[in-house]
Amino acid sequence: MWSAFSVASALAAAALAKKAVDTTWTVATGKNPPENPADPDVDVWEAVSWAIVSGMAVGLARMLAQRRATSYYVRSTGHLPGQLAKDGK
Q1: What's the total number of domains in the chain?
Q2: Quick one: which of 20, 43, 65, 86 has the fewest CB in 10 Å?
Q3: Distance (Å, rounded) from C-alpha 65 to C-alpha 78?
């Protein structure tokens, strides 16, 4: 059960972060985010900037969501999920 809960929270957070980053990019640059940063028509610095910004935002959102999910799990069950317990219990 923990694995499904953890994955679901991470996916939801990643989707929300992607939407927020897309909107912020459009407002900040006046352009849509690169559809495919590997496309030669996309400026290399735009591709690098997009990769850094989107990667950090999605990674941070996933990590925070999984931490919140763990906290909720601990409050609900009274113990860490087996995969996170230091002694394997």
Answers
A1: 1
A2: 86
A3: 19
2 lies in a domain? yes
CA 58 to chain centroid, in Å, comes to 3
CB 50 within 8 A of CB 34: yes
For the stretch 40-51, pLDDT in tens is 888 999 999 999
Residue 87 lies in a domain: no
Four-CA torsion 14, 17, 84, 4, nearest 10 degrees: -30
Q: Could you read off the pLDDT of 66-80 as tens digits, one per residue?
A: 899 888 888 988 888
Is the confidence at residue 30, as pLDDT, over 90? yes
pTM here?
A: 0.76
Sign of CA dihedral 53, 59, 61, 63: negative
